[in-house]
Amino acid sequence: MTTRSTKYNSVKMDVDIEKCREEQNWLKVIQLAEQLKEKERSPYFEYLANFLIGEGKLEKYLEEWPPIEANIHRAKIGLMEAKQFLELACSSEGNKADVALDSLLLLGKMYYACGQYSDSLNSFKSADLDALSEKKLPLRSLRMVAESFAIRALCNVKVAAGASKFKKAEKDDETLRSFEIAADLTLLYTQELEKQQYTGVSGTGTHSPQPPAGNKVLSPILEQSLHEAPSMLLRQGKPIAALERYRVILSSVESQAVHTIRLKCLCQLAELILRGTVSNEYKPPTLMTKDSAWKPKQYSSLNQFVPKNECEESILVLLVAEAMAVRHTVLSQSAEFKEARLNAYHNATLVYDLLTLATVRWGQFALLQESFERAMKFSFEESHVWRQHALSLITAGRYVDALGIFKEVIRLEPNQSVNCLLVARLCYEHLNLPFEGTEFSMEAKKMEFSHSTGLLGRCYLYIGIGYQLQSRNTNLKQEEQVFNECGLKYFNSALEIEPNDHLSEFYLGLQLAIMGRISEALSHVQTALDLRSESSSTLHLLALLLSANSQHVDALEVVEAALQEYPDCLNLMYVKAYLELHLDGGEKALVTGKQMLELWKTLYEGQISSDVPECDRRSDTRSVFQLYTSEMSDKDSSSLQAHSMAASRVEHALSEVASSISSFSPRPGPQRAWLLQMEVWLLLAEIYLTLDEPAYVQQCIQEATQIYPLSHHIMHMRGVLHMYKKEWSEAKLCFQNAVAINPQHIKSLQQLGLVYCYMGSQGLAESTLREAAKIDPKNHITWYNLGKVLEALGEYEDASNCMATALNVETTSPILPFTSVPLCFE
């Protein structure tokens, strides 16, 4: 009876000891080991107890003082007792007790903590670490073996200095292999640990949703092993192997203990792909099979998504990282959670910054914008995420929303002028709010004076742009002159602050050109090109300045040379078509017009079939996709940008009315893309008219009508066709309709004046043309037509003056107005 009781107690103590070891309850392990030593007098139990006491003292000490360099001196003293017990367990008797191997592994760990790297390696050599068979191990043994491989690799790194090249290469191979084995074992250990947490030790279940507190965080050694293998491969110049190592880590079934490490690895994998170092040899991931008891369990299912290229893989891992980061964000603003909140926010912003790079590179702006929408809930008073959100809204075409977000960013960062400048650019480029843009630029200038960030020159430049745009929007000549003078003053100030800024030179040249000072403008444009020869907007302006000097051949050469550099720039192709129309007639211009239609199809066909906004093809050549029609002297629409923002507000309202008509429905997709196509059709209509092809003109007008049936541009072109056919009444009605929609439409006023003249209404003709002259006194066609009307009225002196004015203005008139040059901010 006594014997049975003794055996029962011994077995129970063994179970208790193993349970405490797995739970890392080292105080209890030491107590049980000392009891074992007292109760069992055989050598077997004595050496087992020595091992357990040494293990308990080592692990308990390292929990308080992790094995890092800063703790080495302390460890040499603090681990002396643990060393004595482990050395006792390493004897031949300890080998009989089956504890010598584990003792050697723990001695290796102890020597590493004490900074005795060579002794540590000798311990692992004595343990014959590489000879261990890859079989299923108990939880505690799994951790010990994982740490042993990791420590051997870390010691190899420490003692590598001074070794021969051959020895170093050999050691590097062993180190890398050790790190990889350690990483696999670490992942397997965390999986088994979590599985045990849910199933319970020895079959006992648990309802706790969290693992024990002591098991939540990996030891520094195991954590380092997961990071070191891919890092070492990258240092060795093996990015593909590093990519595969990251994939092994990330395709392993996740456990709570590696959550933070997994998030870091996701970001590091994305960085590796985004750097482009794996592009040439990139291969999509493959589903892995477990071929060893030491390999972690991998995710696998029939419906598992496998990325097919770099784009898919980088965005996939970052979306997974975002889901992990957002899940652990801290929403509470209480002071007690400040550190946790900041750490979680830091992790999330790292993911969002990488996601921004990935989505912008691959044109997936919708994903980015949705991600920043989700980020708002934990970004209270965090200006960085708010700014990124605003920028993502711009890429999504939600400009008004972006303006509202940017105002909040300005509130959060009252001393950062760059935010005001970004808002000013948004107002200028997308919202047709030049006054508001000027105000924001002025605010940025004030910030620069109080908290300089080196952007004062840009502030003056943006103020100048604001005044330049305001001058185009006013109908009062006095106001226009004031705005032009203000713009000129600020551009000069910007150039004084940054004398080598090509943008200041460009805008100063553009302002001088608008004011009719062609020779001065040419000088500044040449300087701008010297500073940045590849700027398409500057080349565009140069071509117009040359045409204003009647150097149309030279202008065409400039445009053709620019198109060699920017073959997909519709702006330059538009200028080319008009120059060809002027120099060679319609045949060459027709070829260019058809090329524009083909280019439009290439650039936009993918966009119009979906709801994706026009935002994935931006460059210096088409930053706002401005295109210009034959109505380029319009005060309301000097570019398609202005057309789509100002005059087209009326057109859009009319188009909504038209949409109620069963025969019309708006085209799907981004409307700006369709506006561009409409402009190309109208250009082709004008070209066909010069070729005496009225049937084709009618077809082109019909194509444009299907896009915006009530556009004043289309009505004007219809009127021109009726004039060609000498159908005066129909022409008059078309021009009157165009002017009714847009009273500032110069071309329609010019043609309407002529129609009145041909119909014998000379008084109406004169008043109409004088109205056009008030709107734009620098248009030579207006003065010429007015001269013809006055001549018909018998007012020969006034007619002569008008003709002289027309000749004088024509000498400085470009092939298209200077205001047709697209805005440039880069």
TrEMBL record:
TPR repeat ranges, renumbered to this chain: 383-416, 712-745, 746-779, 780-813
Keywords (A to Z) from UniProt: TPR repeat
Keyword Cell membrane on entry: no
Coiled-coil boundaries: none
BP-aspect Gene Ontology terms: phosphatidylinositol phosphate biosynthetic process; protein localization to plasma membrane
Gene3D superfamilies in alphabetical order: Tetratricopeptide repeat domain
InterPro entries: Endocytosis_PI4K-reg_protein, TPR-like_helical_dom_sf, TPR_rpt, TTC7_N
Pfam families recorded: TPR_17, TTC7_N
GO cellular component, one term: plasma membrane
SUPFAM superfamilies registered for this protein in UniProt: TPR-like
Family: Belongs to the YPP1 family.
PANTHER family for the chain: TETRATRICOPEPTIDE REPEAT DOMAIN 7, ISOFORM A (PTHR23083:SF464), TETRATRICOPEPTIDE REPEAT PROTEIN, TPR (PTHR23083)
The protein's name in its UniProt record: Tetratricopeptide repeat protein 7 N-terminal domain-containing protein
Organism for this UniProt entry: Pyrocoelia pectoralis
